[in-house]
User: What shape does this take?
Amino acid sequence: MSKIIVLIGAPGAGKGTQARLLQERQGIPQISTGDMFREMKNADTPLAKEVQEIMASGKLISDELTYQIVKDRTSREDCNENYILDGYPRTAVQAEQLENLAKEQGKTIQAIEVDIAREELMKRLTGRRSCPICGEIYNIYSKSPKIENVCDFHPEAKLTHRSDDNEESVSTRLATYDELTKPLLDYYQNSGRLEKVSGEGSLEEIYKAIDDLVRG
Assistant: This one.
């Protein structure tokens, strides 16, 4: 039976990178809520127009409407077999709605958490630097450029540091993530479907652990 792979991970855990690797290497579509909402901004469908009106009014998009967007996107041909959900579900309510979708599509749900220690997340997020020209990401703790604060590919470019990548902002973001995500993790844990991989190895080690679970 084909499945819906739900990847869960805190900001900086690397789940987005791993989802892209699964897509590139196994051809499993990565369905990102961020991408879906961006697509909706320019689409000319009744559902897209409803989303555009809500966004224009500054209101939050409801769980029900988010579910309809996910259902609409995953009904396309590229999602006939396995697909990865990145950024959905975010709450236990959305997880319950996803159960209905899985039944309709004849799929099982596999939840995988990329687990990582808080200290490591702080280093990853506060240590990030990027090239303003090519967007290459560096980290002062783990992936320094050859010349301090200068892009390896664009020596004329000084690396930039996002204003919200400071300890106070990062701590707030991680606390918010914990608060919002704990019920979701509990939901999958209680149903015996939560599997964990460590997010602290190399990119390939983490990929292999996820790949083994997906193929298992």
Q: What stands out?
A: The longest helix spans residues 167-190.
